[in-house]
Amino acid sequence: MGDTAPRRRRPERLITQNSGLRRYGIFTFSLPAWAGRLPDGRTYNTCPAAGVCAAVCYARVGRYAFASVKAKHERNLMRILDDLPQWEQDVLSELAAPKYRGKFLRVHDAGDYFSDDYLSAWLRIARQVPDVTFYSYTKEVSRFRRLVQPDSPLNFLYVFSYGGKEDHLLDPDTDRVADVFPDEQAITTAGWHSNAASDLLAVLGPAPVGMRQNNIPHLKRVIGQRTFREWQASERARRSRGSDGVRR
């Protein structure tokens, strides 16, 4: 018998489903949240526009902190950093499967669009797979202003979420925005629209969009009764004052 070539190992699947979104038929792609160090020693920050949200990030606790989950998200990031064009082709290959037709893919239930090249890759993917709807929460306001808003694919939906360094660039009268509130009653009192019935309401329902705090006791104690918008605004004001209390 002649020699047989070794089988090429199939790349690890990039697109998955988490327990919270599976019930809605939503697929996900995730990165490690915020900042850290990869196993090979490289440091990263997948949420460069994160503000106060970084102190209470739900995607750094609970199941996201499980070793297997964190390692999976880190491998996703390493594939992007090591070979972005190959990663892009791998995503397209996965999305060619019939099960994704007419479905929704939430890009990042952890992480954000950390570079121009990375965001541009997702825009190219969306244009090549028009029968999948991609959606995201993002704090990368200026990056989206430059790269997305001038010519956004119709199947690439997004909502700007408060709690980031670029909150001051947002206008809730013209931008689609989301904020985190203490509870559902606070959302109603503010006249905002809850996404409690489905995560898709963040991009498909009426706006502005309210989300209740995650029910994680130690994070709730840090946030208190503030919305992320209020918290970030107070932090920005604090940082803009000198030690003598005079605004610079």
Automatic annotation (TrEMBL):
<protein>
    <recommendedName>
        <fullName>Gene product 88 domain-containing protein</fullName>
    </recommendedName>
</protein>
<feature type="domain" description="Gene product 88">
    <location>
        <begin position="23"/>
        <end position="229"/>
    </location>
</feature>
<dbReference type="Pfam" id="PF17338">
    <property type="entry name" value="GP88"/>
</dbReference>
<dbReference type="InterPro" id="IPR020290">
    <property type="entry name" value="Gp88"/>
</dbReference>
